[in-house]
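Shipment paperwork, digital attachment
Item: protein structure file
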Amino acid sequence: MKNSFWGFIWQSFLEIYAVPTTFLGIIISVLAWIISSKTQVSLALVITIAVFTLIILITLFHAAYKAFRYTKKLESELEQLKETNENLINEVNKWRIPKILRVQKDQDQGLILCLLESSELFAVKIRISFYYTDEDGFERFIGVGFIENIQSDGKMQAVMNQPFSTYQTILDRLTNNDNTVLERTIIRPGTPKNSNQL
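Attachment content:
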C-alpha cells in the first residue's frame, strides 16, 4: 500500500494525526449545527468544509515534504553508489592485463619496444611473455621480454628481447602498429619454463 501514490498520501495523512483531528472537526461541526440552526448558511457545513480542506492541505504539504526529503536521500545514495562504483572500476583496472598502446622497433639491437597501459601486475625488470590470439582463437607464444621502465604517468615500457622468428609476420605487423595485432596481443607477467628453448 505504501508503494502506491494513494498509499503514500494515506501514510502522510496518518503521520499528521489527521484522524483524531477529523473526528474533532466532525464533533465541532455537529455542535455548531445544533447551536446555529437558524442561519441561512449552516455554520456546521462551513466548519466541516474548512476542517476537511485544512486536513487535505496539511496532508498534501506533508506528503510533498516527505517526497522532497526522500528524493534528496536517494540523490545522496546515488552519488555514493557512483563513487563506490568508480572506485571499484579503478581497483579492477589496476589488476587487469594492460593493453599495448604503441610499438617501436630498435633497429640496432633488434628489440621491440612496447608502451603499455598502467597495471599493478607488473614491476620494473620482471620477465614477461607476449601472446597473440589468432583468428581461430588460439594463443600463440610470440616472444619474451621484461619491463624496462614505469613512467611517471603510470604507463609502462616493455621490451621484447626474444622475439620468436616463427611468427615474424605477426611481429612485423606489431612493430608497424597494426591495430588488429595490437588488440590481439597480450602481455602476461612471467615466462613459461621452456621459453629459452623456443
